[in-house]
Write a structure and sequence with these properties.
Length: about 290
């Protein structure tokens, strides 16, 4: 007697339907939303449901700020706020993305070395203050090109393209470079130039500018600072009086900052320390005229 084989295979159509069954969308649930289309009027998402989801009306006004940084196919974490609207579509919120997404955009742009457009505000002690989607940042003066490095205030009220040097959400820190954008400077290439420079060696440097902190220079394509205390063995109060913008000078590399790829430079260490021979010139208990 032939034993009847137990039918375990599933109907192909049923299996296909099961495979394609829409995920259950419940209010408050977080889902991965894939952008299908976007415009100033709103965004349409594929959330794996029976119908595409739409952005809540109260958040549509914020979309225009993000449009230049989003595209069809991008995936964003969204929260379901309505399983079905009056139009029959699920409604989602991007509130978490609006709060966190700006920093994620900046982080991704930095990693890919892509440009962003920022709005320039006033020029202050740290450089030109900028705004990117509500996030405040700065373009250090040394990260500008002419004519702005000579007159940073000319950037006030302008939109400029920049590359990101530092982005840290925890520290609320954003540092960008207009020079890197204009001159198409690659961070990877900069790292190679930085690695080639040796500490305790003398190099030729181009003077970029001066401030109350010291003199800004460029050594073989790498930026550096001669701190005001490293300009002379004598105490000085005006760094600008010792150099001329555009001139080439000899500098001594004191230290390399591997975090921001900058150099700590010195002028005074190219000459002898006068204090080292002070005891030889003026021995203890010896009387001198003067």
């Amino acid at each position: 007697m032939v034993k009847k084989t137990e039918k375990t295979s599933q109907n192909p159509m049923a299996a296909l339907l099961k495979k394609q069954a829409p995920s259950l969308l419940t209010k408050g649930k977080e889902v991965e939303a894939k952008i299908v289309s976007l415009s100033k009027k709103g965004i349409v998402f594929d959330v794996g449901g029976k119908a595409h989801a739409i952005l809540g009306e109260l958040e549509i006004r914020e979309v225009s700020t993000y449009l230049p940084y989003l595209k069809a196919g991008d995936k964003i974490l969204a929260r379901v706020i309505s399983e079905e609207s009056k139009n029959g579509f699920p409604v989602v919120s991007l509130r978490k993305f609006f709060e966190k997404g700006k920093w994620e955009i900046l982080k991704e742009k930095k990693e890919k070395e892509e440009e962003i457009e920022v709005f320039c505000g006033d020029y202050g002690k740290g450089g030109v203050f900028i705004d990117f989607m509500g996030i405040r940042g700065v373009i250090p003066k040394i990260q500008l090109t002419e004519p702005f490095i000579s007159s940073p205030e000319k950037l006030t009220g302008q939109k400029v393209k920049v590359k990101i040097l530092e982005v840290d959400k925890e520290k609320n820190r954003l540092v960008v470079s207009q020079k890197a954008s204009v001159l198409k400077i690659s961070q990877k290439d900069l790292k190679k130039k930085f690695d080639a420079i040796k500490e305790n060696k003398t190099y030729k440097a181009i003077v970029l500018g001066a401030s109350e902190f010291g003199v800004f220079c460029e050594v073989e394509g790498v930026e550096g600072l001669i701190h005001i205390s490293e300009i002379s063995w004598e105490k000085i109060s005006n760094a600008a009086s010792y150099v001329t913008v555009g001139e080439t000078i000899d500098v001594f590399v004191v230290e390399k900052n591997t975090v921001d790829l900058k150099l700590n430079l010195s002028l005074k260490r190219l000459s002898n320390d006068p204090w080292k021979s002070i005891e030889e010139r003026y021995p203890k208990d010896k009387e001198v005229d003067g």
